[in-house]
Amino acid sequence: MGRKWNNIKEKKASKDASTSRIYAKFGREIYVAAKQGEPDPESNRALKVVLERAKTYSVPKAIIDRAIEKAKGGSDENYDELRYEGFGPNGSMVIVDALTNNVNRTASEVRAAFNKNGGNMGVSGSVAYMFDATAVIGLEGKSADEVLEILMEADVDVRDVLDEDGSVIVYAEPDQFHAVQETLKQAGISEFTVAEITMLPQNEVTLPEDSQAQFEKLIDALDDLEDVQQVYHNVDLGE
Predict the structure, then answer these.
(1) Tell me: the pLDDT tens digits for 204-232?
(2) How many angstroms separate the CA atoms of 100 and 81, rounded?
């Protein structure tokens, strides 16, 4: 699973060059989660997941508060949650999650990004079956054995707990996300290097150098789209 953690690190590191874009995406996601339920993370599980992930990206409190206040204010701005699936160079697989107030615009932009960068859109279900929705929680300061013992004593089910690249990474079913976090917090762990529910590929592929360069252009093009929130793929991007 080391490669999976490397991909998460790569995605998180990429934010450094485009923090304003990342913050805007989080603002939209927080607003949608707060509007769909109570604007209180303690009673709105979807909102709590987004806020936990926002912490690992150092999203400013002002942006979080503004999005929640906008939802409380009864804004009539509405977004549709969409998932696109497609193929990149050499049959690589890509999932794109979007929040949009204009479905036709977003579909057109996502399709164009695929077509211009050696890929093509697939039908619903053509790619997602090769990925698993997974809760991923990362922390430092303890060993994998110590973390596993904490979780086992609390009877929290996880898929795996591994030492990876100097961090401990917990992989669990999505419905165990909060149980894992709360158990670790009760054990005195307050900071997480990663905390999100993501889509991890069941198998990874390595692309030839020329195809990998084109694939990275595809991922960048998709990430740059205003309506795109998350991009998942099955390519080993290396270190």
Answers:
(1) 999 998 899 999 999 999 999 999 999 99
(2) 7
Domains and CATH numbers, the chain: 2-72 (1.10.10.200), 80-129+202-233 (3.30.70.980), 131-201 (3.30.70.980)
User: Which residue in the block uniquely carries the two structure tokens 């994998």?
Assistant: 144
Using alpha carbons, select from 166, 148, 168, 144 the residue that is nearest to residue 158: 148
DSSP labels, 120-135 = EE--TTTTGGGEEEEE
Contacts of residue 219, defined as CB under 8 A and 6 or more positions apart, other chains included, come to 88, 94, 231, 233
pTM for the whole structure? 0.89
Phi, psi values for residue 235, rounded to 5° = -100, 135
